[in-house]
Amino acid sequence: MTSQPQPYEIQMLEAIRELSAAEAARLLGRGQAWVSRHMSELGGYRDGPGDAWHIPVHAIKRYQERRAVELAEELRQHDELAREMRDAMLRRRA
């Protein structure tokens, strides 16, 4: 894993508008192999067969926003399940 980019780095990357797989991996804090496996999910595209991948910065931002919503929902479901389990244990004790 690599360190997370600083805000000024993100601003610089936005000016570029498209990233390579290695740059996207650094921005996301993931390995390059993970980025390669998730290219379509990240909005990556190629100009032609065998060409290098291009990943628009705006597509990565959309991915990050979707992922944040998914994680928030998972956390909400986990909290709900934990409350149900706690309530069931309290009912057994009573």
End-to-end CA span:
48 Å
Q: Outline the low-pLDDT stretches.
A: none
Strand order of the main beta sheet, please?
1-3-2
Structural class: mainly alpha
Average per-residue pLDDT, rounded, comes to 87
Structure description:
- This protein is mainly alpha-helical and 94 residues long.
- The protein has a three-stranded antiparallel beta sheet.
- The model has no long low-confidence stretch (mean pLDDT 87).
- A hairpin with a 6-residue loop joins strand 2 and strand 3 (53-56).
- The protein has helices at residues 7-16, 21-28, 32-37, 57-93; strands at 18-19, 45-46, 53-56.
- It is 65% helix and 9% strand.
Key descriptive features of the protein:
3-stranded antiparallel sheet, 94 residues, mainly alpha, 4 helices
